[in-house]
């Protein structure tokens, strides 16, 4: 799970990967290529046009992008049409979302970009997660009585980690893209200057966060109209953000982390009570991490590694579920076993997951099939396991304020990216003259052992606050392969991200298409609080009663959650498809 050294401009790093990972890629390449070599040999004997047959078999031939906003999806296709690849398109989609969806992500935040390069099957997770400032301490959010001050932890500049998105986008352009960073940023610069219309989610989240946004004049001026939420369709222009993006396009990331913009950010944060320094900004670094790899019933999954908890938890849950015949189970016993697998994976998340550069995360043990066999043995076929029989306690609610997009280009390059500023509009603080809000990712640390954060997730020593450390995340960008098809999937949703992706993965394996994955009714268990939460149509009243007879508490929500986006390449038929979550009014999936 460690770092991968940067050596070649286009990211040819196979020699820097572990021997096991290299052998895995080689075996996978051979398994995929051997049939084509045999066909090619037969074709040569028959005089067939071999090169054309191989190309059509090995490449999708079309591009698919699904994201949370139609402007971002269109921007990605614009960059592909200009000669870029999936990685250039990911820069365009990320930066446009940073303009139009500051409810969920932005250059004041960070994220994970999971990349698959088709030419050599190379895969890597770009870790652009935020880092704690150098002056951060384990007790920085505790009041005089030793209790966590929630307002201090989530609102205002003290809640912000050092943002990583700009560094990550520059890294992707430098090492994986075909176009320059400046070219890929052009759609975002244009939209920031010309504006975008207020849409339903933006309007709703702005109303929810309005009172906090009004504390900070720059944010209030950028997003509110005379101190109130603007009407639907009102055009929001962000000229200051356009200037920041133009500076990055012209001068590169150094202007953001060491130059004029860095100084503006540090001065603004410190004047408002934050603790950032120029040294913190200059010390920010992108890390390339070997993804988590796991298998389930013949499918291979490549997913996020720590400091994301998503990949480890998904591997644990699938390893547990592999011991059941889910396909032939009725809905209630299937949901019971899935919920119990969720419960145990989230228990491990609380106890063992954190930044691997600071804490020895036991990834091999947690993702081992034998470990999962032991967890499965503790699951009663007809009774729920009370969470208080497992370590940990606490209670909290959550919101879904993150974003995800999925990309496949015509050559078969893939990107699964999940980005965030944490809560809606992050910490709501905007440094004057910048046009973007900062994150409140410091709340993703464990501010006090066993005390939940804003998403109800608890943590202990593995995720305690330390200077320079990256907070634990639930973001779970994932690539799935098997049975002649390849899928890319992910979603926002706070603590529910991992379980939503799990349900989407299982639906992929059930043979459904992306529109079905992203529309599927969802349910969730996160160990604490000890209940299954469910969307309104996830279970019938009879199914709820049956689960409760097993000892589960089922809380049916009055609202839906998540904003999943996925793409699929059916290698058998050659069809490429995409799906954008119908829960969102602004999302769009396009295949071209």
Q: Count of DSSP helices?
A: 20
Number of domains: 2
Structural class: alpha+beta
Give the CA-based shape: globular
What does the largest sheet look like? 7 strands, antiparallel
Low-confidence runs (pLDDT<50, min 5 residues)?
1-57, 392-399, 453-459
Radius of gyration from the alpha-carbon trace, in angstroms = 23 Å
Distance between the termini: 36 Å
Percentage of residues in strands: 5-15%
Number-wise, the strands total 18
Write the layout of secondary structure elements.
Layout: H1 19-46, H2 50-58, E1 64-67, H3 70-81, H4 86-100, E2 110-117, E3 122-128, H5 150-154, H6 165-175, H7 181-194, E4 196-197, H8 200-213, H9 217-223, E5 235-236, H10 239-251, H11 254-257, H12 260-271, H13 278-282, E6 287-289, E7 292-296, E8 299-303, H14 310-321, H15 331-352, H16 363-366, H17 369-377, E9 402-408, E10 414-420, E11 478-482, E12 485-489, H18 497-509, H19 514-519, E13 523-524, E14 532-534, H20 541-549, E15 554-556, E16 565-570, E17 576-580, E18 588-591
Parallel strand pairs: 14-15
Antiparallel strand pairs: 1-9, 1-18, 2-3, 2-10, 3-6, 4-5, 7-8, 8-11, 9-10, 11-12, 12-16, 13-14, 16-17
Helix pairs in contact: 1-2, 3-4, 3-7, 4-6, 4-7, 7-10, 14-15, 14-17, 14-18, 15-20
